[in-house]
Amino acid sequence: MRVERLSTGIPELDAMLEGGIPKGFMVAITGEPGTGKTILCIHFIAQGVNEGDKCIYVTTEESRESIITQAAQFGFSFSSGISEKKMIIIDALMGRQDEWSLQSLDVEELMNKVIEAKRALGYGRARLVIDSLSAFWLDKPAMARRYSYFVKKVLSKWDFTVMATSQYAITTSEAFGWGVEHIADGIIRFRRFVRNGILRRYLLIEKMRQTNHSLQMHEILILPGRGLTIIGPVEMRKEDIALPRHIMERIQKAAERREAEAP
């Protein structure tokens, strides 16, 4: 049976995914700050605009203008996409009173606004980015899994293929992305390391259902005018990519605490 796939907008990543992300999937894009999550999402939406998909980008950590500016730096005109009614950017950061802004980080308000945007764009295959989904439960992490299930259940009825980012830092005691990962059909994880005084970024496909995907970690670059570029696979030991033991212990304790607090 042939699986319909949506291009990520990055040919090398598509090749690692047997052609792209299966239609209708919800994919968690996880990693530390500054690793490339938002840029992958920009590629995904830009590709959707080019292919005639209905595209919605929810931004919680940057303004609408910031996302438009970033996209322009990599050669994508989100301004044109918006003016041509091919895409909508929902701003959940600035709290403006315009049609496509959220007044609070409320999951039900988010879903209502996304559905309203889809109706405004019209019938057809749809792409959705929520950057980040974990922002909606930062003040109540025990609800992460429940909220994630709710979002996935609602979106599955509207024919969306979704990228939902979750951001964490290994210096924190809480990891807010685990709710997304538990319900995701796929997980693309970003990591970063300093090698010989140089910051290096990496990407690993940890999971993608219905896909014989690459199991190798790949080094990436983020280049002006091009965006996210995959250099190639790298050989790494397990200890090179694992989180520090004391951080893993904190994460485990936090997860157990959330489970105990969950109603």
Keywords for this structure?
single chain, globular, 9-stranded mixed sheet, Rossmann fold, 263 residues, two-stranded antiparallel ribbon, alpha/beta
What does this entry show, briefly?
Helices cover 35% and strands 26% of the residues.
How does this structure look, described?
The longest helix is centred in the C-terminal third of the chain and has 17 residues. By secondary structure, this protein is an alpha/beta fold. The chain has one domain: Rossmann fold. The chain is built from 9 helices and 11 strands. About 3% of the residues have low confidence.
Helical percent range? 25-40%
| Molecular shape | globular
- What is the radius of gyration? 18 Å
How many helical stretches? 9
Reported CATH architecture: 3-Layer(aba) Sandwich
CATH superfamily: P-loop containing nucleotide triphosphate hydrolases
CATH class: Alpha Beta
What proportion of the residues form beta strands (DSSP E)?
A: 25-35%
Query: Strand order within the widest sheet?
Result: 5-4-6-7-3-8-9-10-11
Largest sheet: 9 strands, mixed
Query: SSE order, as H and E?
Result: EHEEHEHHEHEHEHEEEEHH
Instruction: Give the class from helix and strand content and strand pairing.
Output: alpha/beta
Number of strands: 11
Q: The CATH topology is what?
A: Rossmann fold
List the helices and strands and how they pair.
Layout: E1 5-6, H1 11-16, E2 21-22, E3 26-31, H2 37-51, E4 54-59, H3 64-73, H4 78-83, E5 87-91, H5 107-121, E6 126-131, H6 144-156, E7 160-167, H7 178-183, E8 186-195, E9 198-208, E10 218-223, E11 227-233, H8 238-241, H9 245-261
Parallel strand pairs: 3-7, 3-8, 4-5, 4-6, 6-7
Antiparallel strand pairs: 1-2, 8-9, 9-10, 10-11
